[in-house]
Amino acid sequence: MREHMTGKERIEAVFRGRNADSIPWVPFAGVHAGKLAGYSAREVSTDADKLVESLRKVHSLYRPDGMPVMFDLQIEAELLGCDLVWSEDAPPTVSSHPLAQTQTIPSRLPGPDEGRLALELEVMARVKREFGEQTALYGLFCGPFTLASHLRGTNIFMDMVLDPDYVHSLLDYTLQVSQFMARCFSEAGMDVLAVVDPLISQISPEHFREFMHTPFSELFGYIKELGAFSSFFVCGNATMNIEPMCQTGPDSISVDENVDLAQAKRITDSYGVVIGGNIPLTTVMLFGSQQDNMKAAVQIIDSVPPGRLVISPGCDMPYDTPVEHVLAIEQAVHQTHSVREMVNTYEGSTFAFTGTLPDYEHLQRPLVEVFTLDSATCAACAYMVEVAKEAQHHMDIDVDVVEYKYTSTENIARCREMGITKLPSIYINGELAYSSIIPSRDKLIEEITEKAAAT
Predict the structure, then answer these.
(1) Could you report the per-residue pLDDT of 33-82, keeping only the tens digit for each?
(2) How does pLDDT run across 346-382, given as a tens digit for each residue?
(3) Which of 149, 162, 169, 385 is the residue whose CA sits 20 to 30 A from 351?
(4) What does the pLDDT read at residue 348?
(5) CA terminus-to-terminus distance, the chain
(6) What is the mean pLDDT of residues 233-256?
(7) Strand pairing class (93-94; 136-142)
(8) In terms of Cα–Cα distance, which of 71, 80, 290, 110 is closest to 198?
(9) Over the stretch 196-241, which tens digit does the pLDDT of each residue have?
């Protein structure tokens, strides 16, 4: 082990199972990078010069050992015909699904000079020249299952039961798209090729093994052939799928706050896989204090055995995350001993619930409450909300559907008041129906109908 390693050397050491002089720190500053330079999320998603300037800010302020160039799971979907809805403070979201009404299998692969992929590749080349020798650069792309969902919509959850052959064929196609993206990013000099597939947390281990094991194993094998490190990013409560994910052969796995990192690390360690995570995005990074952020990082470090660990936000950090909170995490990761002493007796912030819960026993009609991280930025959350609205639209009775985003202190307090611990979740008439599993539309209609009949 060298003393005073570069960030890139730290990442490489940890990914190879060796000792490093510090735990690596990888801030997922997607559109938040734009905030640092005074640009909107849309500007840094569509303008190469503004994105490069923003990434320079991330690099100089947050002293990352590794960093993503973009955190945008919609680039491939846009290239393949999905419409997007744009935001000034969040990545774009998919608003249409080209295969929603047809079970055809596309064959066209995009080219590296198309759409915003061309912009991303240009930026990768530029930042590689500027600080790619000192910092490990992450190329993030949409995984095969979430990309298939972007193309097919929520119908894919019914397809998995009613037409598994179609799902296999569609995943064969999206695997080809993912391999194309991996090759482009490898040629652009990315050190870590990260397959970001939020919807993996929304399926059972049985469905993972049936549909996902082969395409993901092939994808991670392909990345290894390219000579890059690989990472498997997943959002939501992926606890049940940690071992199946490891069995596909990634070098690392990244999880969010829904996953108990200590429990997951026992599994990843047994497979020699690095685990990354999982500073809470809203309760800590967005709405906490500097001390909250320091303590969260130290608690994660102290909760797990040493080695094969990367500290990072649970996912792409919110656009408005205070700079001082991210600086606090960096200090806690790189100067853990001194920060541990600073926050040893600190008690974290709490949020009081000041609203009122519905009178669930006397509702006039069924109430479907969808509790999400944020359907505007979380793909799994977006599809959970979409299936609830589709069920509402196709029912013969009136149904109320409400989304509570975990992006305000009031909704955070509401979740705690109701005892909600995993997101996204669907509650029907105040009772938990689905937690981190997206139901088919027909299954949800059946559940709502049963609840309505019982009241």
Answers:
(1) 999 999 999 999 999 999 999 999 999 999 999 999 999 999 999 999 99
(2) 888 778 899 999 999 999 999 999 999 888 888 888 8
(3) 385
(4) 81
(5) 66
(6) 96
(7) unpaired
(8) 71
(9) 999 999 999 999 999 999 999 999 999 999 999 999 999 989 999 9
The C-alpha atoms of residue 117 and residue 86 are separated, in whole angstroms, by 17
Token match 């409400």: residue? 402
Angle formed by the axes of helices 164-187 and 155-162, nearest 10°? 120
Cross-strand partners of 428: 368, 431
| 3-state SS record for 145-175 | HHHHHHHHCCHHHHHHHHCHHHHHHHHHHHH
pTM above 0.85, yes or no: yes
**Residue 319 has which token pair?**
């656009």
Whether residue 124 is predicted with pLDDT greater than 80 in this model: the reply is yes
pLDDT at 449: 94
Place of tokens 């047994």: 270
Mean pLDDT of 154-174: 96
CB count in 10 Å sphere of residue 355? 9
Q: Which of 283, 199, 193, 191 is nearest to 236 (CA)?
A: 199
Contact 370, 424 (CB under 8 A): yes
Cβ within 8 Å of residue 229, ≥6 positions away: 11, 12, 15, 191, 192, 193, 223, 251, 252
Distance CA 376, CA 403 (A): 11
Please tell me the distance from the alpha carbon of residue 52 to that of residue 156, in angstroms, as a whole number: 37
CA atoms within 13 A on the CB side of 453: 7
pLDDT score at 134: 97
Any idea which residue has 């071992």 for tokens? 243
Question: Mind listing the domains of the chain with CATH numbers?
Answer: 7-342 (3.20.20.210), 360-454 (3.40.30.10)
